[in-house]
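Morning, I've got a small favour to ask if you have a moment. Here's the protein in full, and shout if anything looks odd to you:
***
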Amino acid sequence: MNLAGLGLTAEQERVYRYFLRSPHADLDAAAAHLGIPHLSAVLDRLRTLGVIDDSLAALSPAVAVAQLIRRRMEQTSRELHQLSAAWDIVRDLAEEQRSGRPVELVERIEGVENVNRRIREFSSAKEVMNIKNVVSTLRRDDEKVVRFRKRLSAGLVSRSLVPEATLADPEQLALAREGHTLGDLCRVSTECARQVLIISRSVAFVQIDPADRTAGALLIRQPGAVAVLVDMFEGMWARARDLNEPQLAPIERQVLQALALHDKDETAARALNISVRKFRTHVAELMDRLGAGNRFQAALLAKERGWL
């Protein structure tokens, strides 16, 4: 079996397999053995893909394949969403035909009521991404809340990022957990600034004034701008912690930093002034919490979550 299905060319796979067998091999000798004069360029690409490190050592097969699978899944997801966006073009053309005027790619909407009215135009959407400063200011029996829950039960995919400070309020935390149970998946972020709502990865509402949610929003349809907002959300989502996941304790953060800085457990434990046994216990707990198969993968996942 080859790695072409995971995004490697035959040449790149040959190089990866060579350095897997001969870690830290001499670059000139490797180029001569493989018959690849442009080996440096191939290695640069393999470093970008995350399967060879800067010391010319190939990552273990488990880690390398996991990296390639994740990148391939992300690429496939982007391609599928680009195809889905074609239907939004059909909708915009139909709107132009109906109204007799061009659909604006960026539109300023004044006032929260007008923003909510425009959001309701997309009530048939199947996916929403939300960056918000509060979980909700509405009662559980409010008509808007009831409609949203019906959409969740009908298959709406909803993800929300909420600030740490907001969830310090027990009532807001209870609302977030209740919504999470119903399908409005929630994560806790330290990066939230202004409210953003992304609908079907093709339309975005961005709060005009971070200090005043009633001021209104920009409605953005420009594909490039929306794609940037989607990437921003996905990055924040990856770095945020799960709603029910406890915050990282100071000693856990120190252990992760020591793990990244020191090659040996004895050196890392000494730097933290704790026993080697205690250090290894913390490492094992963090690996389990991150779902990591090894320490290198734990460091990568911790970095993705913003823990390092």
Remarks:
- The chain has a mean pLDDT of 82.
- The CA atoms of residues 97 and 251 lie 61 Å apart.
- The chain is about 55% helix and 15% strand.
